[in-house]
Amino acid sequence: MSLMKRYAPGALVRGRLARAGLVVLAVFVLIILPGVLASRPGFFSRYPALGEQYVPWSSSTHLEAGCEGCHVPPGTIPRALHRARLVGEFYLSVAAGSREPGYFATPTNDACLECHSDLRTISPKGDLQIPHRAHITILKMDCVECHNYLVHELSPEGKHTPPMIECLRCHDGDVAKDACTACHTQKAAPDSHSTGDWLVTHAAEAGDPECVTCHKWKEDWCADCHRDIPRSHTSDWRAIHGDRVAEHRNCEACHESDFCVRCHGVVPPLNLDPTLELVE
Given 188, 214, 233, which residue is the final one in a domain? Predict the structure, then answer.
């Protein structure tokens, strides 16, 4: 009887340790492991919509940044809640594999500033002046307003960098400056653009391969000007246009041949250049 009393406490301890070990194993298998698996970006690639966003991310500069780093607000509580939610997401993916998770929030500026500094004033290549503090701190803009192609989607040019047309939503000459040198450090309008007759002579230079280095940020950049009524077409244009055409004819840049015929009966031969193409 004394021997049983002597060894009973040891057996009791071992039993408690075994039960504690089973609890720890259950917690690891049922909670920790599913949470870890669901926290990996590849976990969400199984869903069709998120899978499409996973592919661009895998070739972006944010490859080493997980979903939590961008899509969950910084802070212990938000990220703890997110990790707990991932456990549920794991089991939901098992029970309803066709379901599309929809709880990834748009990255906030606070999330971006966890890794990035708003003191950056120039692009990594040094070819653009980008005063981030002026945009973020002073103008209160969201990072994603400009960087909408940064991670999960490629721009029309197939890049992760913002296309110029996005910049021009603000840099239109009214809301913000639109001079080339306002942003570009290695580009400026050529001297030819500042000559008095550039608007008259530029069509002859349109085939210059150098033009696309600045202008080919959109396919129809010529139309930005040519769809508007020229400044020369003042209220007395009908009376004076004959003299202007005698000096330089470029009617066909905008008007098809039958436009002149409506009044003249024929296509006026004065200064006619049959090779001039209509700008669509």
Answer: 188
